[in-house]
Design brief:
Blueprint lengths: L4 E8 L2 H7 L10 H18 L4 E8 L2 E7 L17 H19 L12 H16 L4 E2 L5 E2 L7 E8 L8 H14 L2 E6 L6 H9 L4 E3 L6 H9 L3 H4 L14 E2 L6 E2 L3 E2 L6 E2 L15 H8 L4 H13 L15
Parallel strand pairs: 1-2, 1-6, 6-7, 7-8
Antiparallel strand pairs: 2-3, 4-5, 9-10, 11-12
Length: about 325
């Protein structure tokens, strides 16, 4: 518990979602300006908790992801001196993050505002950054031997502050990121600030041992961050961390990128489809007609009707093996 801690914070900075969040008809409206003020206070608390604590901040913008701040970057301390009444690390974090966010938001034009949010890119960059600080360059002793003190490595975790809904096309990269976080033993915490629950981020928090919390009282964002996400993973073993009442384990199909209740998994490559297919589009494995007929019995009624309509409008054509190909 005396070891330093590292936290990588991913900020969902979708302009359209934050505009909806700030509307006065919401029960607890929260603007982007108020959100940043509370998040920066939380980040300053993390820095002040221990001198060796490290911090990295990533911004997820429409169509891209950007590193906003890194405490291990020497350029972070090269800015001009400011007010003498402000603790220097706090001033660096506040000015650097706010300035970078303003620059990125101003560079977004009208055509880019509707682009998918770059949450997956920010998560991947956070994992790569943590992997780099967990495996630093070994130091060399006077006798020429190299040593690496594992006690000096920070205890890493990722915190995602989300306001955007699920994007079905990002299911595969998010699952790959989850598997990477499991291998690196990195906890992923998720705080859902606005919008419906995200199925994929629920699974990310559950599979990595983190916590997923839907924030109902958004005016208490800072209190929630301090009580739930400020303690390090070692201290969490002594605390009652919020847990999920229920977890949605639904997946997105590989054919239409839709979140499905009933899916069919390829026995070779484990690809998921919303209905039985004669040939797997991923590994090109062919399945016998008897298997397809048996699996059709498990289809929901709505899916059967849609499948029957597709067959009526476009009859299947025979393939090289004599099996009908699935209409798309």
């Amino acid at each position: 518990m005396d070891q330093p801690s590292h936290i990588s914070v991913i900020l969902d900075l979708s302009p359209s979602q934050w505009h909806l969040s700030s509307l006065p008809q919401n029960p607890y409206p929260l603007s982007l300006k108020s959100f940043l003020a509370q998040v920066l206070a939380f980040l300053n608390l993390h820095i002040a908790s221990k001198h060796e604590n490290t911090l990295a901040i990533f911004g997820a913008f429409p169509g891209k992801s950007v590193m906003l701040y890194s405490s291990t970057d020497p350029a972070s301390d090269s800015s001009d001196s400011g007010s003498p009444n402000i603790y220097r690390p706090f001033e660096i974090v506040d000015s650097r993050v706010v300035t970078r966010i303003e620059e990125e938001l101003e560079s977004i034009d009208d055509s880019q505002e509707e682009a998918p949010i770059g949450l997956v890119g920010a998560l991947t960059k956070a994992l790569c950054y943590i992997n780099r600080i967990k495996h630093p360059t070994p130091s060399t002793q006077s006798n020429g031997t190299t040593v690496e003190d594992p006690a000096t490595l920070p205890d890493p975790r990722i915190l995602i502050l989300s306001v955007s809904p699920d994007l079905s096309t990002s299911y595969i990269p998010i699952m790959n990121s989850i598997f990477s976080a499991q291998k690196l033993k990195i906890i992923i915490d998720v705080c859902k600030i606005y919008g419906p629950d995200t199925v994929f981020l629920e699974q990310a928090a559950h599979l990595t041992g983190g916590s997923y919390v839907y924030l109902e009282r958004r005016d208490a964002l800072l209190q929630h961050l301090v009580m739930s996400h400020l303690p390090s993973p070692a201290l969490r073993k002594l605390m009652a961390v919020p847990t999920q009442d229920k977890i949605d384990f639904r997946a997105a199909c590989f054919c239409h990128k839709n979140i499905v209740d009933v899916g069919f998994v390829c026995s070779v490559c484990l690809s998921i489809f919303c209905r039985p297919v004669a040939v797997c589009t991923t590994c090109r494995t062919k399945f016998p007609m008897s298997t397809l007929r048996r699996l059709d019995a498990y289809l929901p009624r709505a899916a059967k009707q849609a499948n029957g309509t597709a067959k009526t409008s476009a009859p299947p054509t025979p393939t090289a093996t004599g099996l009908p190909s699935t209409p798309r």
